[in-house]
Amino acid sequence: MKAEIIAVGTELLMGEILNSNSRDIARELYNLGIDVYHQSVVGDNLNRVSKELETAFERADLVITTGGLGPTRDDLTKEAAAHFLKRDMILDEESIKHLEDFFGSRGLPLNEGNKRQAYFPEGAKIIPNENGTAPACIIEFDEKVLVILPGPPREVIPLMEKYIIPYLEKRTGKVFISDIINISGIGEGHMEEKIMDIIEAQENPTVAPYAKEHGLTLRVTASASTEQETRLLLEPVVKKICDRLGMDVYAIGDTTLEAVVASLLIEQNLSISVAESCSGGLLAGRLINYPGISKVFKEGFITYSNESKINTLGVDSKILSNYGAVSEEVAKQMAKGAANRAKSDVALSITGIAGPDGGTDEKPVGLVYIGLYLLGEVKVMKMDSWGSRDNVRRRAVSQALDMLRRELQIRASK
Protein backbone atom coordinates (compact mmCIF):
# COMPACT_ATOMS: atom_id res chain seq x y z
CA MET A 1 0.00 0.00 0.00
CA LYS A 2 1.32 3.44 -0.97
CA ALA A 3 0.26 6.42 1.10
CA GLU A 4 0.29 10.18 0.92
CA ILE A 5 -0.31 12.78 3.64
CA ILE A 6 -1.93 16.16 3.07
CA ALA A 7 -1.84 18.80 5.81
CA VAL A 8 -4.52 21.44 5.32
CA GLY A 9 -4.21 24.92 6.79
CA THR A 10 -3.08 28.36 5.66
CA GLU A 11 -1.44 28.82 9.08
CA LEU A 12 0.89 25.90 8.21
CA LEU A 13 1.92 27.54 4.96
CA MET A 14 2.65 30.79 6.78
CA GLY A 15 4.80 29.03 9.37
CA GLU A 16 2.53 30.01 12.26
CA ILE A 17 2.09 26.34 13.32
CA LEU A 18 4.59 23.49 13.15
CA ASN A 19 3.43 20.63 10.94
CA SER A 20 4.01 17.86 13.49
CA ASN A 21 0.95 15.84 12.41
CA SER A 22 2.46 14.77 9.08
CA ARG A 23 5.58 13.55 10.88
CA ASP A 24 3.59 11.58 13.46
CA ILE A 25 1.24 10.05 10.89
CA ALA A 26 4.16 9.08 8.64
CA ARG A 27 5.88 7.29 11.53
CA GLU A 28 2.74 5.31 12.30
CA LEU A 29 2.36 4.30 8.66
CA TYR A 30 6.02 3.30 8.49
CA ASN A 31 5.50 1.02 11.47
CA LEU A 32 2.63 -0.63 9.59
CA GLY A 33 4.82 -1.29 6.56
CA ILE A 34 2.95 1.33 4.52
CA ASP A 35 5.21 3.43 2.28
CA VAL A 36 4.80 7.22 2.30
CA TYR A 37 6.24 8.73 -0.87
CA HIS A 38 4.76 12.22 -0.74
CA GLN A 39 3.64 14.79 1.82
CA SER A 40 2.11 18.15 1.00
CA VAL A 41 0.72 21.26 2.69
CA VAL A 42 -2.15 23.19 1.15
CA GLY A 43 -4.04 26.29 2.25
CA ASP A 44 -7.71 26.50 3.21
CA ASN A 45 -9.16 26.67 -0.30
CA LEU A 46 -11.80 24.28 -1.64
CA ASN A 47 -10.46 24.03 -5.20
CA ARG A 48 -6.81 23.69 -4.16
CA VAL A 49 -7.56 20.97 -1.58
CA SER A 50 -9.74 19.13 -4.10
CA LYS A 51 -6.98 19.31 -6.71
CA GLU A 52 -4.42 18.10 -4.16
CA LEU A 53 -6.61 15.06 -3.45
CA GLU A 54 -6.89 14.33 -7.16
CA THR A 55 -3.11 14.48 -7.58
CA ALA A 56 -2.46 12.38 -4.49
CA PHE A 57 -4.78 9.58 -5.56
CA GLU A 58 -3.06 9.36 -8.93
CA ARG A 59 -0.01 8.14 -6.98
CA ALA A 60 -1.35 6.56 -3.79
CA ASP A 61 -3.82 3.96 -2.53
CA LEU A 62 -4.23 5.69 0.83
CA VAL A 63 -4.44 9.43 1.48
CA ILE A 64 -4.66 10.88 4.97
CA THR A 65 -5.58 14.52 5.44
CA THR A 66 -5.22 16.47 8.68
CA GLY A 67 -6.78 19.84 9.40
CA GLY A 68 -9.63 21.88 8.01
CA LEU A 69 -12.47 20.33 10.06
CA GLY A 70 -13.17 23.26 12.38
CA PRO A 71 -16.34 25.37 12.64
CA THR A 72 -15.19 28.37 10.58
CA ARG A 73 -15.98 29.03 6.92
CA ASP A 74 -12.42 28.33 5.79
CA ASP A 75 -12.51 24.78 7.21
CA LEU A 76 -13.31 23.04 3.94
CA THR A 77 -11.51 19.69 3.84
CA LYS A 78 -14.67 17.55 3.88
CA GLU A 79 -16.32 19.78 1.29
CA ALA A 80 -13.21 19.50 -0.92
CA ALA A 81 -13.34 15.71 -0.55
CA ALA A 82 -17.01 15.68 -1.53
CA HIS A 83 -16.19 17.87 -4.54
CA PHE A 84 -13.35 15.54 -5.59
CA LEU A 85 -15.49 12.42 -5.14
CA LYS A 86 -18.57 14.04 -6.68
CA ARG A 87 -20.68 13.20 -3.63
CA ASP A 88 -23.23 15.13 -1.61
CA MET A 89 -22.63 16.31 1.94
CA ILE A 90 -24.94 14.43 4.34
CA LEU A 91 -25.85 15.25 7.95
CA ASP A 92 -24.81 12.55 10.42
CA GLU A 93 -27.44 12.35 13.16
CA GLU A 94 -25.12 10.83 15.78
CA SER A 95 -22.57 13.58 15.24
CA ILE A 96 -25.13 16.36 15.57
CA LYS A 97 -26.46 14.77 18.78
CA HIS A 98 -22.92 14.58 20.19
CA LEU A 99 -22.42 18.26 19.41
CA GLU A 100 -25.75 19.21 20.99
CA ASP A 101 -24.85 17.30 24.14
CA PHE A 102 -21.32 18.77 24.18
CA PHE A 103 -22.40 22.39 23.95
CA GLY A 104 -25.58 21.88 25.97
CA SER A 105 -23.64 20.52 28.95
CA ARG A 106 -21.61 23.74 28.90
CA GLY A 107 -24.64 25.98 28.62
CA LEU A 108 -23.64 27.11 25.12
CA PRO A 109 -25.76 27.31 21.96
CA LEU A 110 -24.91 25.15 18.95
CA ASN A 111 -24.11 27.64 16.19
CA GLU A 112 -24.19 27.07 12.45
CA GLY A 113 -20.43 26.69 12.23
CA ASN A 114 -20.45 23.81 14.68
CA LYS A 115 -23.40 22.20 12.91
CA ARG A 116 -21.25 22.04 9.78
CA GLN A 117 -18.92 19.69 11.65
CA ALA A 118 -21.68 17.05 11.57
CA TYR A 119 -21.85 16.96 7.75
CA PHE A 120 -19.80 14.41 5.78
CA PRO A 121 -19.39 13.23 2.20
CA GLU A 122 -22.03 10.60 1.42
CA GLY A 123 -20.85 7.08 2.30
CA ALA A 124 -18.25 8.17 4.84
CA LYS A 125 -17.61 6.01 7.90
CA ILE A 126 -17.73 8.42 10.84
CA ILE A 127 -15.03 8.18 13.52
CA PRO A 128 -15.96 9.74 16.89
CA ASN A 129 -13.53 12.25 18.37
CA GLU A 130 -13.41 12.02 22.17
CA ASN A 131 -10.97 14.94 22.40
CA GLY A 132 -12.66 17.57 20.24
CA THR A 133 -15.80 18.61 18.40
CA ALA A 134 -14.75 17.55 14.89
CA PRO A 135 -15.27 13.83 14.10
CA ALA A 136 -12.94 12.15 11.65
CA CYS A 137 -14.04 9.86 8.83
CA ILE A 138 -12.91 7.13 6.44
CA ILE A 139 -14.09 6.96 2.83
CA GLU A 140 -13.50 3.88 0.67
CA PHE A 141 -13.80 4.10 -3.12
CA ASP A 142 -12.33 2.25 -6.12
CA GLU A 143 -10.15 0.10 -3.80
CA LYS A 144 -8.64 3.28 -2.38
CA VAL A 145 -9.00 4.89 1.05
CA LEU A 146 -9.31 8.51 2.16
CA VAL A 147 -8.88 9.23 5.88
CA ILE A 148 -9.90 12.71 7.03
CA LEU A 149 -8.54 13.78 10.44
CA PRO A 150 -8.81 17.03 12.41
CA GLY A 151 -5.81 19.30 12.96
CA PRO A 152 -4.99 19.55 16.69
CA PRO A 153 -2.28 16.97 17.58
CA ARG A 154 -4.05 16.16 20.86
CA GLU A 155 -6.93 14.88 18.70
CA VAL A 156 -4.97 13.33 15.82
CA ILE A 157 -2.76 10.99 17.83
CA PRO A 158 -5.59 9.35 19.85
CA LEU A 159 -7.67 8.95 16.67
CA MET A 160 -4.74 7.27 14.90
CA GLU A 161 -4.04 4.94 17.80
CA LYS A 162 -7.63 3.95 18.61
CA TYR A 163 -9.26 3.83 15.17
CA ILE A 164 -7.06 4.38 12.12
CA ILE A 165 -4.19 2.01 12.91
CA PRO A 166 -6.53 -0.92 13.75
CA TYR A 167 -8.48 -0.22 10.55
CA LEU A 168 -5.29 -0.26 8.47
CA GLU A 169 -4.03 -3.39 10.23
CA LYS A 170 -7.20 -5.24 9.21
CA ARG A 171 -6.84 -3.95 5.68
CA THR A 172 -3.26 -5.24 5.40
CA GLY A 173 -4.30 -8.64 6.77
CA LYS A 174 -1.42 -8.78 9.27
CA VAL A 175 -1.04 -8.53 13.04
CA PHE A 176 1.19 -5.63 14.09
CA ILE A 177 2.60 -5.37 17.62
CA SER A 178 4.87 -2.63 18.93
CA ASP A 179 6.93 -2.33 22.08
CA ILE A 180 8.09 1.10 23.24
CA ILE A 181 11.55 1.17 24.81
CA ASN A 182 11.96 4.30 26.96
CA ILE A 183 15.49 5.66 27.33
CA SER A 184 17.03 8.44 29.42
CA GLY A 185 20.42 9.76 30.50
CA ILE A 186 21.99 9.25 27.08
CA GLY A 187 22.08 11.31 23.89
CA GLU A 188 20.39 10.19 20.69
CA GLY A 189 23.70 9.82 18.81
CA HIS A 190 25.33 7.77 21.57
CA MET A 191 22.24 5.58 21.86
CA GLU A 192 22.23 4.97 18.11
CA GLU A 193 25.92 4.00 18.13
CA LYS A 194 25.23 1.24 20.65
CA ILE A 195 22.54 -0.38 18.49
CA MET A 196 23.54 0.75 14.98
CA ASP A 197 23.96 -2.81 13.70
CA ILE A 198 20.43 -3.66 14.90
CA ILE A 199 18.98 -0.58 13.18
CA GLU A 200 20.87 -1.26 9.94
CA ALA A 201 19.77 -4.92 9.88
CA GLN A 202 16.13 -4.12 10.59
CA GLU A 203 13.50 -5.63 8.35
CA ASN A 204 10.90 -7.29 10.51
CA PRO A 205 10.81 -6.08 13.27
CA THR A 206 11.49 -2.44 12.42
CA VAL A 207 13.23 -0.15 14.90
CA ALA A 208 12.23 3.52 14.88
CA PRO A 209 13.94 6.06 17.18
CA TYR A 210 12.04 9.10 18.49
CA ALA A 211 13.51 12.09 20.34
CA LYS A 212 10.81 13.44 22.64
CA GLU A 213 10.70 16.38 25.01
CA HIS A 214 11.55 14.31 28.08
CA GLY A 215 13.82 11.65 26.57
CA LEU A 216 14.23 9.08 23.83
CA THR A 217 12.10 6.17 22.76
CA LEU A 218 12.59 3.28 20.39
CA ARG A 219 9.49 1.75 18.86
CA VAL A 220 10.09 -1.84 17.82
CA THR A 221 7.33 -3.13 15.55
CA ALA A 222 6.85 -6.64 14.19
CA SER A 223 4.21 -8.09 11.90
CA ALA A 224 3.08 -11.61 11.08
CA SER A 225 -0.09 -13.55 10.35
CA THR A 226 -0.80 -14.33 14.02
CA GLU A 227 -0.15 -12.65 17.38
CA GLN A 228 2.01 -15.55 18.54
CA GLU A 229 4.22 -15.39 15.45
CA THR A 230 4.52 -11.63 15.83
CA ARG A 231 5.60 -11.90 19.48
CA LEU A 232 8.24 -14.49 18.53
CA LEU A 233 9.73 -11.98 16.10
CA LEU A 234 9.44 -8.99 18.43
CA GLU A 235 10.68 -10.20 21.81
CA PRO A 236 14.25 -11.25 20.90
CA VAL A 237 14.96 -7.87 19.28
CA VAL A 238 13.55 -5.94 22.25
CA LYS A 239 15.69 -8.04 24.63
CA LYS A 240 18.81 -7.51 22.51
CA ILE A 241 18.32 -3.72 22.51
CA CYS A 242 17.66 -3.61 26.26
CA ASP A 243 20.76 -5.72 26.94
CA ARG A 244 22.86 -3.31 24.88
CA LEU A 245 21.51 -0.15 26.50
CA GLY A 246 21.41 -1.51 30.05
CA MET A 247 20.49 1.10 32.68
CA ASP A 248 19.78 3.67 29.98
CA VAL A 249 16.44 1.87 29.50
CA TYR A 250 14.08 2.98 32.23
CA ALA A 251 10.92 1.15 31.12
CA ILE A 252 9.17 -0.70 28.33
CA GLY A 253 5.67 0.44 27.43
CA ASP A 254 3.63 3.62 27.36
CA THR A 255 4.91 5.39 30.47
CA THR A 256 6.97 8.37 31.63
CA LEU A 257 10.15 8.83 33.59
CA GLU A 258 8.30 10.51 36.45
CA ALA A 259 5.82 7.61 36.61
CA VAL A 260 8.67 5.12 36.91
CA VAL A 261 10.37 7.18 39.63
CA ALA A 262 7.10 7.62 41.54
CA SER A 263 6.35 3.89 41.34
CA LEU A 264 9.80 3.02 42.65
CA LEU A 265 9.44 5.45 45.56
CA ILE A 266 6.05 3.99 46.46
CA GLU A 267 7.26 0.38 46.11
CA GLN A 268 10.24 1.11 48.38
CA ASN A 269 8.17 3.22 50.78
CA LEU A 270 10.49 6.23 50.45
CA SER A 271 9.19 9.76 50.93
CA ILE A 272 10.57 12.59 48.80
CA SER A 273 11.00 16.37 48.84
CA VAL A 274 12.56 18.68 46.25
CA ALA A 275 14.50 21.93 46.38
CA GLU A 276 14.62 23.96 43.18
CA SER A 277 16.39 27.09 42.10
CA CYS A 278 16.67 27.55 38.30
CA SER A 279 13.99 24.91 37.57
CA GLY A 280 11.45 26.94 39.54
CA GLY A 281 8.99 24.14 40.38
CA LEU A 282 9.24 22.09 37.18
CA LEU A 283 10.67 19.12 39.06
CA ALA A 284 7.83 19.09 41.59
CA GLY A 285 5.37 19.47 38.72
CA ARG A 286 6.77 16.45 36.86
CA LEU A 287 6.51 14.27 39.97
CA ILE A 288 2.99 15.49 40.71
CA ASN A 289 1.96 14.40 37.20
CA TYR A 290 1.78 10.90 38.69
CA PRO A 291 -1.68 10.38 40.27
CA GLY A 292 -0.48 8.32 43.27
CA ILE A 293 2.46 10.54 44.23
CA SER A 294 0.64 11.88 47.30
CA LYS A 295 1.65 8.66 49.09
CA VAL A 296 5.30 9.74 49.12
CA PHE A 297 5.66 13.39 48.05
CA LYS A 298 6.11 15.59 51.11
CA GLU A 299 7.11 19.07 50.06
CA GLY A 300 8.62 21.22 47.33
CA PHE A 301 10.78 24.28 47.95
CA ILE A 302 11.46 26.96 45.32
CA THR A 303 14.52 28.69 46.75
CA TYR A 304 15.50 31.01 43.93
CA SER A 305 17.35 33.65 45.92
CA ASN A 306 20.36 33.17 48.16
CA GLU A 307 18.29 34.42 51.08
CA SER A 308 15.68 31.71 50.59
CA LYS A 309 18.38 29.04 50.30
CA ILE A 310 19.75 30.20 53.66
CA ASN A 311 16.44 30.82 55.46
CA THR A 312 14.39 27.93 54.08
CA LEU A 313 16.94 25.17 53.53
CA GLY A 314 19.67 26.15 55.97
CA VAL A 315 22.37 26.55 53.32
CA ASP A 316 25.52 27.97 54.94
CA SER A 317 26.03 31.61 53.95
CA LYS A 318 29.80 31.07 53.93
CA ILE A 319 29.41 28.22 51.45
CA LEU A 320 27.35 30.52 49.22
CA SER A 321 29.96 33.26 49.47
CA ASN A 322 32.89 30.96 48.81
CA TYR A 323 31.47 28.76 46.05
CA GLY A 324 28.44 30.60 44.69
CA ALA A 325 24.83 29.46 44.38
CA VAL A 326 25.64 27.33 41.33
CA SER A 327 28.07 24.86 42.82
CA GLU A 328 28.44 21.28 43.97
CA GLU A 329 28.61 22.39 47.59
CA VAL A 330 25.32 24.33 47.46
CA ALA A 331 23.53 21.54 45.58
CA LYS A 332 24.52 19.15 48.37
CA GLN A 333 23.32 21.50 51.09
CA MET A 334 20.05 22.18 49.27
CA ALA A 335 19.27 18.45 48.99
CA LYS A 336 20.20 17.77 52.60
CA GLY A 337 18.30 20.86 53.76
CA ALA A 338 15.14 19.83 51.92
CA ALA A 339 15.28 16.33 53.41
CA ASN A 340 15.78 17.73 56.91
CA ARG A 341 13.09 20.37 56.57
CA ALA A 342 10.48 17.96 55.12
CA LYS A 343 11.70 14.94 57.10
CA SER A 344 11.84 12.93 53.87
CA ASP A 345 13.89 9.86 52.98
CA VAL A 346 14.86 11.29 49.59
CA ALA A 347 15.47 14.80 48.32
CA LEU A 348 16.48 16.20 44.94
CA SER A 349 17.97 19.66 44.41
CA ILE A 350 18.63 21.68 41.26
CA THR A 351 20.74 24.84 41.02
CA GLY A 352 22.08 26.25 37.77
CA ILE A 353 22.37 29.06 35.23
CA ALA A 354 19.48 28.75 32.78
CA GLY A 355 20.34 31.95 30.88
CA PRO A 356 20.18 33.62 28.54
CA ASP A 357 22.32 35.95 30.70
CA GLY A 358 24.34 35.50 33.88
CA GLY A 359 27.03 33.11 32.69
CA THR A 360 30.79 33.53 33.00
CA ASP A 361 33.82 31.74 31.56
CA GLU A 362 34.07 29.77 34.78
CA LYS A 363 30.34 29.13 35.08
CA PRO A 364 28.71 29.37 31.65
CA VAL A 365 25.01 29.39 30.82
CA GLY A 366 23.75 25.81 30.95
CA LEU A 367 25.83 24.79 33.96
CA VAL A 368 23.61 22.88 36.41
CA TYR A 369 24.29 20.93 39.59
CA ILE A 370 21.86 18.27 40.77
CA GLY A 371 21.94 17.03 44.34
CA LEU A 372 20.49 13.74 45.56
CA TYR A 373 19.95 12.88 49.20
CA LEU A 374 19.05 9.23 49.74
CA LEU A 375 18.73 7.88 53.29
CA GLY A 376 21.60 9.98 54.63
CA GLU A 377 23.92 9.75 51.63
CA VAL A 378 24.36 12.79 49.37
CA LYS A 379 25.56 12.70 45.76
CA VAL A 380 25.96 15.49 43.20
CA MET A 381 25.93 15.46 39.41
CA LYS A 382 27.34 18.23 37.22
CA MET A 383 25.48 18.90 34.00
CA ASP A 384 26.52 21.09 31.06
CA SER A 385 23.42 21.86 29.04
CA TRP A 386 22.71 24.02 25.99
CA GLY A 387 19.93 25.74 24.11
CA SER A 388 17.23 28.07 25.35
CA ARG A 389 16.39 28.86 28.96
CA ASP A 390 13.41 26.50 28.81
CA ASN A 391 15.53 23.69 27.36
CA VAL A 392 18.16 24.02 30.09
CA ARG A 393 15.49 23.87 32.78
CA ARG A 394 13.65 20.91 31.24
CA ARG A 395 16.84 18.91 30.71
CA ALA A 396 17.91 19.57 34.31
CA VAL A 397 14.61 18.19 35.59
CA SER A 398 14.82 15.10 33.39
CA GLN A 399 18.41 14.51 34.48
CA ALA A 400 17.45 14.83 38.15
CA LEU A 401 14.65 12.29 37.75
CA ASP A 402 16.95 9.94 35.86
CA MET A 403 19.65 10.24 38.53
CA LEU A 404 17.15 9.20 41.19
CA ARG A 405 15.65 6.49 38.96
CA ARG A 406 19.02 4.77 38.54
CA GLU A 407 19.73 4.81 42.27
CA LEU A 408 16.30 3.38 43.08
CA GLN A 409 16.53 0.64 40.45
CA ILE A 410 19.98 -0.38 41.72
CA ARG A 411 18.58 -0.41 45.26
CA ALA A 412 15.63 -2.57 44.14
CA SER A 413 17.93 -5.10 42.45
CA LYS A 414 19.95 -5.79 45.61
TrEMBL record:
SMART domains tied to this protein: MoCF_biosynth
Source species of the chain: Acetoanaerobium sticklandii (strain ATCC 12662 / DSM 519 / JCM 1433 / CCUG 9281 / NCIMB 10654 / HF)
SUPFAM superfamilies tied to this protein: CinA-like (SSF142433), Molybdenum cofactor biosynthesis proteins (SSF53218)
UniProt cross-references to InterPro entries, sorted A to Z: CinA, CinA-like_C, CinA_C, CinA_KH, Competence-induced_CinA, MoaB/Mog-like_dom_sf, MoaB/Mog_dom
NCBIfam families: cinA_nterm (TIGR00200), molyb_syn (TIGR00177), PncC_domain (TIGR00199), PRK00549.1 (NF001813)
Record CDD domains: cinA
Name listed for the protein in its UniProt record: Putative competence-damage inducible protein
Record PANTHER family: NICOTINAMIDE-NUCLEOTIDE AMIDOHYDROLASE PNCC (PTHR13939), NMN AMIDOHYDROLASE-LIKE PROTEIN YFAY (PTHR13939:SF0)
